[in-house]
Amino acid sequence: PKVVFSGIQPTGVPHLGNYLGALRQWADLQSSASPSDKLIFSIVDLHAITQRQAPEALRLHRREMLAAILAVGIDPNRSIVFEQSRVPQHAELMWILSCGASTGYLSRMTQWKSKLGVGEDADAFASGNNTPRLKLGLFSYPVLQAADILVHRATEVPVGEDQAQHLEFTREVAGTFHSSYGTVFPLPKTVLSPARRVMSLRDPLQKMSKSDPQPPSRILLIDTPEEISKKFQKAVTDSEEGVTYDPRARPGVSNLVQIYAHMQRRTDFHNVANELKDCTMKELKDKVAGIVIEGLRPIRDEYERISKEGDRYLEIVAEEGARKARESAEETMVLVRHAMGLA
Ligand code: TYM
């Protein structure tokens, strides 16, 4: 049987990139799973605190993310949905794995560099007087991610392309553990969704992201139809005539074509562009907005319904999910502690 694990940071209501790159895939895997498969989805609040968070905002954003995960169709009676901080085994395994994790490997990872805005210029960064800015938690972020996956002995991890590097690291860390203590973990497979990288509407060379300071750069799953139309109307394209698919030469237009295709579960982008070839930019944007509005409508309705049920309902779901996740993680930790002489 498969064990599917994935995680998402509590950034509040997720954006279209999170949805097409991850959440929709989670729901698909849930529908196609056989009864013996285990599905586990985590709101990774311990990862979120590698960036400073205001406590009230974090509380709110965890709740919003949970409501959104349910709204896209994850069924808490079928899948385990939980908040990472309620399952202490994640942090316990992280410590154990960090004892075998190479700082050289971690220093080559790109995420902390982009979070600190040091780009690829990491050597200059490290030799300068900047190191106090790099906190240990942000540096070791991938070790906690490896622990998330391994503590449930996951076999598949559905993610967007930006997480592929972290999954390679996970397999590396598992291999190191195995050569010291014997095999405990399956080596988890990376499952990339067809929408690997949805780009920003304001800068199509950057991925759509919650940390972009410009809200019009992203569509949120509960944006109103008016907001969605407005954001697409403002999307950066180019001044060429007609629609073609060429991500290098026409990144903005190609991103819109991709979004239009993914909303229909198509990946034949050239054909899709060809069907749209006579559209003006305004017509293209209207069409993309229309299909996104229709596609997100049921999610927005469901989110509203869940919000009306109130915090008590979400608290019950979170507590029940955490209980099941602790059980799943503890089974692995018994093996880990035994293998290491910690039992
Ligand atoms: P996070 O919270 O940044 O993103 C959650 C998921 O959404 C995908 N994603 C995108 N896909 C396509 N286009 C985009 N513009 C886009 N933006 C985000 C991400 O690839 C991801 O699948 N480190 C992880 C969270 C994590 C995790 C884990 C994931 C912690 N532990 C264990 C898998 C397994 C993160 O920050 O994702």
From TrEMBL:
GO terms for molecular function: ATP binding; tryptophan-tRNA ligase activity. GO terms for cellular component: mitochondrial matrix. Pfam families: tRNA-synt_1b. InterPro entries: aa-tRNA-synth_I_CS (IPR001412), aa-tRNA-synth_Ic (IPR002305), Rossmann-like_a/b/a_fold (IPR014729), Trp-tRNA-ligase (IPR002306), Trp-tRNA-ligase_bac-type (IPR024109), Trp-tRNA_synthetase (IPR050203). Its EC number is 6.1.1.2. GO terms for biological process: mitochondrial tryptophanyl-tRNA aminoacylation. It is found in: Mitochondrion matrix. It comes from the Eukaryota. It catalyses: tRNA(Trp) + L-tryptophan + ATP = L-tryptophyl-tRNA(Trp) + AMP + diphosphate + H(+). The keyword Coiled coil does not apply. Keywords: Aminoacyl-tRNA synthetase, ATP-binding, Ligase, Nucleotide-binding, Protein biosynthesis. PROSITE patterns: AA_TRNA_LIGASE_I. HAMAP family: Trp_tRNA_synth_B. Belongs to the class-I aminoacyl-tRNA synthetase family. NCBIfam families: trpS. This is Tryptophan--tRNA ligase, mitochondrial. It comes from Sphaerosporella brunnea.
